[in-house]
Amino acid sequence: MRGVCSVLLLVVMMLALAQPMTPAPSLEEELAPSLTSSSMSLSFAGPAEGESVTGLLSISVTASGTGNLSWLRIDVSDGSGWSEVGNRSSSPWFAQLDTTVLTNGSYQLRAVGHDADVDDEVTGFSANFTVANQVPIITAFSVLNPGAGSGTSSNDRWWFATPADGTLQFRWGASDDDLERATLSNLPGTGTPSSDGPGTLTYGWDWSPGDLDEGTWNPRLNVLDGSGLSASLTRFIGIDRTGPEIGAITVGNDGGWQADNNITLNGLKTTADDGFGSGVASTDYSLDGQTWQSTTADNLDMTLPEGENVVYLRSVDRVGNVGNVTQLPVNVDLTPPEGYGWVVEELTTNRDQPAPILYVAEDAGSGVDQSASTIEYGFDTNGVGSIPDITGRWITLGNNQGLNTSLDLASWATKSGQYLLLRATVVDGAGNTIVTPTASFQVLPGLDLMWNAPNTTIDRLIVRPGQGTGAVQIEATLQSNEGYDGTVAVRLETAPADRFSAVDWTVMESRTLAAESLENGTYSMTWNLSVTVEGQLDIRLVIDPSDSIDEYDEGNNAIYFVVTGASISPGLVPSFAPSIGLMLLAGLLCGILSRRPRD
């Protein structure tokens, strides 16, 4: 008996080994229920094999057979692993799958439940299905009739000059298999437009809230489909109704008077200010404020007449707003300044103050630019030549006083007889320049010796010739304009009054005054002379007859007298009264004239 049982057991085992194994679940075919002790089975109400699903998928599971289902979990897989969708502990047994979070492709559902009667799990599988969601694609989003820009970024906005009560026309387009509606947000003005759809789509909004302010906005379009999928796109716009202002324009190179009538105005656009607006596009310009021309360049070349000119400018932005008119002075001076001459105080060796020096010039246009004009000086031996031969070069007066300045030397005492050479470089406000011819001014000695005329007298003008009778006496006072401590030679000279030009003066007496005789500026002396011949005799007193002393004025070194030597005989001197005959004749003529009848 035991042998029969052993044979039967061996046959059963061989049959079991010959039975093929159940294949593993796959997405290509419906999976058979797994081995379980439960008599219950789980099935899905859909989707069907190969069905395409989108959006939110409602999943329903039905339990059949006998048993007590205590809980149910639903999973989804794309073949790489299972992910839980949901679970429940009571009927109805369902879940919702948001397919929009899944990548489009092939999927399968699995239901895992618990049969409480046998305390075992039951598994069921759905058919293979395809997730085929289509996200809306925005094909157009624009605002009609912008004045400038592309609207694609905050740096390149669509700009409008729309008035406050105007309208912004938004238009949109999208592609999708179940397009439902669109909304628009982030708009200027009060409120928000209603959504476009669901239902009939107009694909646009004409936005006119009545209070469109100037500024910038970022309108956002949001498109939704029936599957709950959405797409959004942002555009960038601005409203600008204010014109830009002209900035600080540079005229030529320095902005002042111009020495050329071909003028360049620089910085028309780069210095203009449009605030937070659309930006400067061009500049209008005019010479009379009536007829305007336009340029988009930053620089403008113009040809203007000599004199004071006004260029009218106004800036225009990218949406056509025109700013205020600015009047720009542009002055042209083509004529060099005109020089008139020097004003220099007398130069002497006893000067102890700076010597004022002025060159007189004028410029009828831009005026003389004192800060740019200079005076140069040098010392010369003879006052001629283009370069001072003592200093060897021209020296610029460096006190920055232009053409009205002064020359301050440590000492003028060593400059006696030298010539101060001067020349000026005169520059006008436009840069026109002249260089004056060289002018020379001699430095004169400060010391001046002279006779004090009121205090230098002769006691007689007519004398009887002879040693005893012809004596005359001269009281003389020598003076100097400053204290002098050197010796001084003086002498008394005579010459006949009726002499020929070749006759020299005869020295009658010479004296040398001791040093420091003129320390106080004056020195008195007496001269005696005897007239021994008849006739007129010229007398003179001479200071420094050899010209050994350097003086301010050598012409006042002599004083002159005339003395007459005469022998007078006793007798009547003829009268100067008229004769009796002449008196009678005059009376007769007066009588005749008095009897003439009147007209």
What secondary-structure arrangement, pairings included, does this model have?
Blueprint: H1 2-18, E1 40-44, E2 52-53, E3 56-65, E4 69-77, E5 82-88, E6 94-98, E7 105-115, E8 120-125, E9 129-131, E10 137-143, E11 158-160, E12 168-175, E13 179-185, E14 204-207, E15 215-217, E16 220-225, E17 230-234, E18 237-239, E19 250-251, E20 262-266, E21 280-286, E22 293-295, E23 299-303, E24 307-317, E25 326-332, E26 338-344, E27 355-362, E28 374-380, E29 395-396, E30 404-407, E31 419-427, E32 433-435, E33 439-442, E34 449-451, E35 457-458, E36 462-463, E37 471-480, E38 488-496, E39 506-513, E40 522-530, E41 535-543, E42 558-565, H2 580-594
Number of domains: 5
Share in helix: under 10%
The radius of gyration is 64 Å
The overall average pLDDT, rounded, is: 88
How many beta strands in the DSSP annotation? 42
Strand proportion, as a percent range, falls in 35-45%
Level-2 CATH architecture of the largest domain = Sandwich
Measured between the Cα atoms of the first and last residue, the distance is 214 Å
Helical element count? 2
CATH class of the largest domain: Mainly Beta
How would you sum up the major sheet?
Answer: 6 strands, mixed
Shape, per Cα inertia axes: rod-shaped
Structural class: mainly beta
CATH superfamily of the largest domain: Immunoglobulins
- CATH fold type of the largest domain: Immunoglobulin-like
Uncertain runs are 1-33, 570-577
